[in-house]
TrEMBL record:
The keyword Membrane applies. Its main location: membrane. InterPro entries: CPA3_Na-H_Antiporter_D (IPR050586), NADH_UbQ_OxRdtase (IPR003918), ND/Mrp_TM (IPR001750). It comes from the Bacteria. Keywords: Cell membrane, Membrane, Transmembrane, Transmembrane helix. One of its GO terms (cellular component) is plasma membrane. It is a multi-pass membrane protein. This is Multicomponent Na+:H+ antiporter subunit D. Residues 129-414 form the NADH:quinone oxidoreductase/Mrp antiporter transmembrane domain. GO terms for biological process: ATP synthesis coupled electron transport.
């Protein structure tokens, strides 16, 4: 069944070519895109089941390992594939609904669908990459597509914000490429399984430089403080579905790369203290920025940055419990953060704005919208018994188990960040949904199609399922963490 492994990359690329050829037929484009992403989700689910017996490995083109490109579908990669495929499918349906409601004025379908599928192919390729250069290619594919999507519509605001995004992304790509070059010069290979042995043989100083370059590149992509200043200014200007998929997925690709390289290539926690300090700074600075915002999209952007700190906390602990909780929280956060940005899009259409001083009374005038916001907001804030609470509890328990002074500081920072997240989201609830509608002229509401609401509701339900299935999911992420720390299952699968 290894022939399934390349499909999550190949199918979106073929779908992109097909939708490009059908640029004059929007309905055919929509049918192709939905079919391709549905098939990608099904294949990803099958790969997740198959990976339980061990990683699936494919040498692309039949080249012997480690000469050619290797795709590796282990449990971590397939978990990320399943969640990302479900999220991209729901966001696609939302964008189709929005495009239909808007008469396609902001969503030129002839460009949108091929670009969106190429973005999906870049994300899946990054998750499945078994060598650093192919990981770089995956990043470049998704970034090239994201450059188009973030400036969709070509307004002055989007072009200005997109320029910042492009410059920062290019900088991280240059650092990543330079790091790859140095790693190849030092070891003679870029295959990650082969690098396990060869990096261990390098002097500690050389290893530290190589590790630092990869962390710097991935830290920019994951929006870790102080490399996160670009995000709150870039994401909110894009169309709602684009912002949602960027917020949910793109930073997590950077987090995934950090988890993969720190556990497989640079184990032992040599930079654990640095990661812990970065985690605490990202949490605190991000959430303080969120508290100060008066616009829902910018507030959510800062909470996105803040919660990347939780994920880094688990990686910095470099323990089985910490990694297990970090993987669990990553999966949860992809779904919940995407959902909240989609809800913000619905709020903007209903209230004419996402500025809190111009909103009010939505709980009475749009009760369904209030429910769609309320549930993921509680989940993100970490209110029991939601999965956000379970993920944070796992991280706090892992930090307490570590017992170091820095870990206890992170435990306190996690608790404070969670309370401030609750405060920031409660403020949105009070001002946008609960208080009396503001007086004065407001923009006429735009119609939200049934497809937009249904796809958002599907993600809300998916977030609830994380809570219902938290036990089995935590068992799975615990196995993932054990395999990551052992390294041998991955290496034996690639280099038998």
């Amino acid at each position: 069944m290894t022939w399934l492994v390349p499909l999550p990359v190949v199918m979106p690329l073929l779908g992109a070519a097909a939708t490009l050829l059908m640029f004059r037929r929007p309905r055919v484009q929509r049918a192709i895109s939905v079919s391709v992403l549905t098939a990608t989700l099904l294949v990803s689910g099958m790969l997740l089941v198959l990976a339980a017996d061990g990683p699936l490995v494919v040498a692309v083109g039949g080249w012997p390992v480690p000469m050619g490109i290797v795709l590796v579908a282990d449990q971590l990669a397939t978990l990320m594939l399943v969640v990302s495929s479900a999220v991209t499918l729901c966001v696609l349906l939302y964008s189709i609904g929005q495009g239909g409601a808007d008469g396609d004025e902001e969503h030129p379908l002839s460009v949108y669908h091929p670009t969106y599928l190429i973005l999906t192919a870049g994300v899946t390729n990054a998750f499945l990459s078994g060598d650093l250069f192919n990981l770089y290619v995956g990043f470049e594919i998704l970034l090239a597509a994201s450059y188009v999507l973030i400036t969709l519509g070509g307004t002055e605001t989007r072009i200005r914000a997109g320029t910042t995004y492009v410059v920062v992304s290019l900088l991280s790509s240059v650092i990543f490429l330079a790091g790859i070059g140095l790693i190849y010069a030092a070891t003679g290979t870029l295959n990650m399984a082969q690098l396990v042995e060869r990096l261990d043989a390098l002097p500690d100083g050389v290893r530290l430089v190589l590790q630092g370059m990869l962390l710097l590149a991935f830290g920019i992509k994951a929006a870790i403080f102080p490399l996160s200043a670009w995000l709150p200014d870039s994401y909110p200007t894009a169309p709602a579905p684009v912002t949602a998929v960027f917020a949910g997925l793109l930073t997590k690709v950077g987090v995934y790369a950090i988890i993969r390289t720190e556990t497989l290539l640079f184990p032992g926690g040599r930079v654990a203290d640095l990661l812990m300090v970065a985690a605490l700074s990202t949490m605190v600075v991000g959430i303080l920025g969120a508290v100060a915002q008066s616009d829902i999209k910018r507030l959510l952007s800062f909470t996105l940055v803040s919660h990347i700190g939780y994920l880094l906390f688990g990686v910095g602990l470099a323990s089985r419990a910490g990694l297990s909780a970090a993987v669990f929280y990553t999966l949860h956060h992809i779904v919940v953060q995407t959902t909240l940005f989609l809800v913000a899009g619905l709020i903007e259409r209903r209230g004419g704005s996402t500025a809190l001083d111009r909103l009010g009374g939505l709980a009475r005038t749009a009760p369904l919208l209030a429910v769609l916001f309320f549930l993921p907001a509680l989940n993100l804030a970490g209110i029991p018994p939601f999965s956000g609470f379970l993920g944070k509890l796992g991280l706090i328990q892992a930090g307490a188990g570590d017992g170091s002074a820095l870990s206890w500081l992170l435990v306190g920072g996690s608790a404070v960040t969670s309370l401030l997240t609750l405060y920031a989201l409660a403020r949105v609830w009070n001002l946008a949904f609960w208080r009396t509608p503001v007086a004065g002229p407001v923009a006429a509401p735009l119609r939200s199609s049934r497809l937009m609401v249904t796809s958002t509701a599907a993600l809300v339900v998916a977030g609830m399922l994380f809570t219902v299935a938290a036990g089995p999911l935590y068992s799975l992420t615990d196995t993932v963490a054990a395999d990551l720390l052992a390294r041998s299952p991955y290496v034996r699968a690639v280099l038998p």
